[in-house]
Amino acid sequence: MQFSLQKNINNRSLNMGDIYQQLQVYFDSMASGFPKTDGGSEIKVLQMLYSEKEAGLFLKMRPGKETAREAANRLNLDENSLSDDLESMARKGILWRERENGKTYFSTSPFVVGILEYQVKRISEDAKLAQSVAVYGVGGLMKSLASAGEQHMRTIPINRQLVEKWPVATFDDAVGIINSHDKIAVGLCTCRTIFNSIGMKKCVNPLESCIGFGKMAEYYLENNSAREISKDEAIHIITKSDEYGMVLQPFNGKDIGALCSCCGDCCTILMSLKMRPNPAQEVRSSYFAKIEPGGCSGCEMCIKRCQIEAIRMNEDNVAVVDLNRCIGCGLCVTTCPTNAASLVKKPESELYDPPKDLNEAHEIMERKRGMITRS
Fold first, then answer.
1. Residue 14 to residue 6: CA distance in whole angstroms
2. Can you give the pLDDT at residue 327?
3. CA angle 59, 220, 249 (to 5 degrees)
């Protein structure tokens, strides 16, 4: 498979004086982007993560996986030396690595979801890095995510029983997702870790709440950024997510690499969605919330639980759902004291058929942005 960037970054001479500018442009061409800011906060983040040598090597790698031997042959480099460099970068979380059938493959990743999340352990230990990421998040990254035409993540019901009257696809069933995997790991939530590290605000929700599966779990475990857990513990974690009022967001694909428990105060994705006038159009969900006016007691619990600001009280003190904003998570349903709230499955014509996996989702995002061509 060949890859060609519209801006032809990999074919440019890699002048070390502007290597980080080139790296910014490359990241900006991927998935949800990595925009330039007036203050250059994005360059500071890249300089903290990559040495000049590592930045240059990342620019030469491809979004599609390849072995060190394949990359060495393509780049006319020494295989052993290149293999050591790629392994070192993978251990630092600045390059993706996966192992399959006795072979090790490497590839580039978008900054979000990707390189940023791979840095969660370092962010938890390095307040300066956390601060730099936070500054860039506000100044550039958030705006890019808010303008993305496609999202990295989907939203699924917090509890399968909320929608059991309809057929539920495995990729829309949190417990089904967990039970379909053997290798499972849990790590810190990157977003909450950033906020806690810089002391901006202390989120009361659990830090250890991001669950990885399969190759994603193996990557985090090998990098000592997560711990392996059983299916039962994973189910316990998502059950607690409901109690804390967190939205379940798996990767946007049928083959789900990770399942995050997110809150509207910290999650980069949810915060960017709240900036949009019609979040429901951006989120790939098969459900929406409905509140029966005659059953609503006016307690406003649903408003407190909603992470996307999709519910308001009308003049009759009855909760009303804004269907342009509702993302179908079900948090308003599980604690409704009068059972007035429920989740409703969207019409067949509006149901979303996810991509095969996150890589395919990234390809869709990149094509929509017109930035990268894969053939």
1. 17
2. 92
3. 95
Q: Which two tokens stand for residue 29?
A: 């061409």
Residue with tokens 């057929």: 167
Which range of residues forms the domain containing residue 178? 150-273
> What pLDDT was estimated at residue 138?
79
pLDDT on residue 16: 52
Whether residues 254 and 159 fall in one domain: yes
Give yes or no: residues 337 and 258 share one domain.
Answer: no
pTM: 0.87
Nearest residue to 56 via CA among 84, 18, 88: 18
Residue 142 predicted with pLDDT over 90: no
pLDDT at 9: 42
pLDDT tens track for 286-321: 889 999 999 999 999 999 999 999 999 999 999 999
What's the angle, vertex CA 295, arms to CA 294 and CA 296, rounded to 5? Answer: 100
**How far are the Cα atoms of 17, 151, 272 from residue 279, in angstroms, in the given order?**
41, 11, 9
C-alpha span between 31 and 263 (Å, rounded)? 23
What total of structural domains would you count in the chain? 3
For residues 209 and 192, what is the distance between their CA atoms, to the nearest angstrom? 10
Task: Compute the distance between CA of residue 37 and CA of residue 351 in angstroms, rounded to an integer.
Answer: 37
Looking at residue 48, which CATH number applies to its domain?
Answer: 1.10.10.10
Question: What is the torsional sign of CA 110, 222, 184, 335?
Answer: negative
188 phi and psi angles, rounded to 5 deg: -70, 145
Same domain for 217 and 336, yes or no, is no
Residues 274, 286: Cα–Cα separation, whole Å = 19
Note the pLDDT of residue 339.
Answer: 93
**Gap between the terminal Cα atoms of the chain:** 6
Do 21 and 122 fall within a single domain? yes
Q: Residue 162: pLDDT band by 50, 70, 90 thresholds?
A: low
Asked whether 139 and 37 are in contact (CB, 8 A), the reply is yes
